[in-house]
Amino acid sequence: MLKRNEKLEKIKRKLLSMWLIICFIFAMMPPVPVSAATFVVSGLMYNELTSSTVEVVPNSYTGTSYTIPKQVTSGGKTYNVVRIGEKAFSQCSNLKTVTINANLTSIGPSSFYKCVALETINIPSTVSSIGSAAFDNCYALKSINIPDNVTAIDHSVFRRCDSLTSLTMKNVTSIGNSSISYCANLESVTVLSNLANLGGLALAYTPKLKTLKLTGVPPASVYQNPFVDEDFGEKDTVDRELILVDSSGTPLTGTAFTNASAAYRAVNDGNTADNKWFSCNIVQPKSTNAGLASVAGQTDSTPGASQVLKQALLHGR
Q: In angstroms, how far is the first alpha carbon of the chain from the final one?
């Protein structure tokens, strides 16, 4: 009987030791994340970010038009829609129109990548972040607004947007590599804030880009020629103009233009005599003041319409 009790005690001790080992192993393991709630409302799939916010996520969308609401309700809870998630509408070939209501703060990477039929999208003023390649290969996109809260354009954001003809950025201070490249019909780009960074090939392969408007302070950092890949011996053959403007888009004149143009000429290659910044000719738009002055200063030797009428009456004509 005694031996049997001793055996039972040994078994108990072994079992207890095994249990303690198992508990230790589980205690050392990283916690397994709990999957966030996902749900579908009006054809859009949402992923819960917090107890009060959600993002739109991929769901094999086939429609031609979608509206991103300000809020959405599911399971008795109302959420703010704050983000279009990564690859949410990627390669949705039928998508033509997207309407976004306020509350959205972020458009994720590749969110509209290769939406080849996308023509129009409004980005509300609440948006402050646009992820890399967000509109890459959106061939049909005709125009887009960049909200004032956006300060950076990540790499490849508007790459191969062939239908874009112009782009204006008010508070953007950083433009990433290849961000506005391969835009076949882009004619003008305007940046109204001093650029801290202009990435490599940021504006490359844009054969119709003839007008570039930048502030009077040259970009602090330019990775390489923004128009062509000089590492492969490429030469920019497009006749481009660089117009230096203030923060409102008004061209610089006088001393402001002189100083700014000298800074741009020097920052590229140190050559201040060629009047170029990379392959852009630095120009000052002709003022219309002279023309207005000549009209305002008409004399009797070049009579206006009223003078001609008076002369006709005096001579009985």
A: 147
Task: State pLDDT tens for residues 142-197.
Answer: 999 999 999 999 999 999 999 999 999 999 999 999 999 999 999 999 999 999 99
Concatenated DSSP letters of 201-254: TTT-S-TT--EEEEESS--S-B-S-SSS-GGGT----S-EEEEEE-TTSPBP-H
Q: Sketch the domain layout of the chain as residue ranges.
A: 36-150, 164-286
Q: How large is the average pLDDT for residues 247-262?
A: 96
d(CA 182, CA 191): 19
The CATH number of the domain covering residues in 36-150? 3.80.10.10
**Where are any strands of DSSP class E within the chain?**
38-41, 44-48, 53-57, 65-68, 71-74, 77-84, 97-100, 106-107, 120-121, 129-130, 152-153, 166-169, 174-175, 188-191, 197-198, 211-215, 240-245, 276-277, 280-283
Structure tokens at 283: 């120009």
Nearest to 213 by CA among 292, 307, 139, 280: 280
Which alpha helices (DSSP H) does 130-198 contain, by range? Answer: none
pLDDT on residue 285: 86
Closest Cα to residue 199, out of 158, 233, 168, 153? 153
Strand 240-245 with 166-169, pairing: unpaired
Would you put residue 249 in left (φ > 0), alpha (ψ -120 to 50) or beta?
left
